[in-house]
Amino acid sequence: xxxxxxxxxxxxxxxxxxxxxxxxxxxxxxxxxxxxxxxxxxxxxxxxxxxxxxxxxxxxxxxxxxxxxxxxxxxxxxxxxxxxxxxxxxxxxxxxxxxxxxxxxxxxxxxxxxxxxxxxxxxxxxxxxxxxxxxxxxxxxxxxxxxxxxxxxxxxxxxxxxxxxxxxxxxxxxxxxxxxxxxxxxxxxxxxxxxxxxxxxxxxxxxxxxxxxxxxxxxxxxxxxxxxxxxxxxxxxxxxxxxxxxxxxxxxxxxxxxxxxxxxxxxxxxxxxxxxxxxxxxxxxxxxxxxxxxxxxxxxxxxxxxxxxxxxxxxxxxxxxxxxxxxxxxxxxxxxxxxxxxxxxxxxxxxxxxxxxxxxxxxxxxxxxxxxxxxxxxxxxxxxxxxxxxxxxxxxxxxxxxxxxxxxxxxxxxxxxxxxxxxxxxxxxxxxxxxxxxxxxxxxxxxxxxxxxxxxxxxxxxx
Length: 463
What we know:
The chain has one domain (2-223, 230-458). Helix content is 87%, strand content 0%. It has helices at residues 2-11, 14-47, 49-85, 89-116, 118-124, 129-144, 146-149, 151-161, 165-189, 194-217, 232-271, 275-290, 294-313, 317-344, 346-353, 359-372, 376-391, 395-416, 422-462. Helix 5 packs across helix 6 (129-144) and helix 12 crosses helix 16 (359-372).
């Protein structure tokens, strides 16, 4: 398996590599996000608008917890891939082992914090007296399971680096089947509220986290557990490489807080009492709708990152460019298809999360989706560019890209379009991704110049 995986990264034709790695990666990432879609559909259809809004209030806090695991998991994946390209397997195994320990310890700390400080945290997120209790109970349930659920995403990265692409896909699909079964049991069988929803998704992720560790425990993978040897330079490298994804997630959560506060105020102004709850519910529909599409973009970019990092470490720059080209073609196709599906299927998508009798919420959600969907005409470029920069260990440039996309552009555009009211928020996503694509072009030009210089230096050295 070790030789086969390295040979695949080093010699397989770029387009064949794309289909072998990226397509299962797309399915895997989509499956990872389907649990969120399933949960949203159950909450919206079973528990109604209030519960839907309350979960959306708590969700950014849950995702911040996952973001810390992503910081370490994604941050470790980059030096691991580059070390493998340099044939430094001992280094790769140590980074892998240390990162698993770090994720566990971080998740214990974050879980305790979210549980003990749930009420003030939810108030900070914009929860009013009507939504507070429900938001707190949802958050505390997720916190109790965070020690195992958080490592799920990192183990998925490590499986794919080790060549277990199909195994990763199967585990993610099974996770969603487990989520569906548990949601049905807790929400319909036991008639639980949002606690049952949080419990269902958390338990399925915990179970699959344990299953994902089995190949590594059997010591048949490219990466293997060793006695972890921590040192400051390794921790700094992991932190630097994981910072773009982490800051993107954190910035996105800060933006969500600002959006929720703005929506509560705008909704009350436009629709009167309880209008803020409706506005937040529409925003939640948009976020769940996005989960139908963005994982496919991220799945392509993330799945090809180990191959890009491996060849960057091996100084195969021409091969890096060919693999990246495949990534851009793939994500561009997904972006165009996503825009079409969301625009023409707005009613179908909205109806997944909104009861038919909630006419106002359904109508406003459809309108918001048709404005929001044009973001995918540009989002593919931003996602792929950020993934490429992270894969070749350019954390500063990737961080500029991620923070600008997740925080700077949204806040600036929110202020610029404030007079448009709620439509300004829905259009915000389009403007953000347009500016992100423009920024990405400038960053790619800079990287292109560096690659040319590296190629010349390598040719001179070889001669």
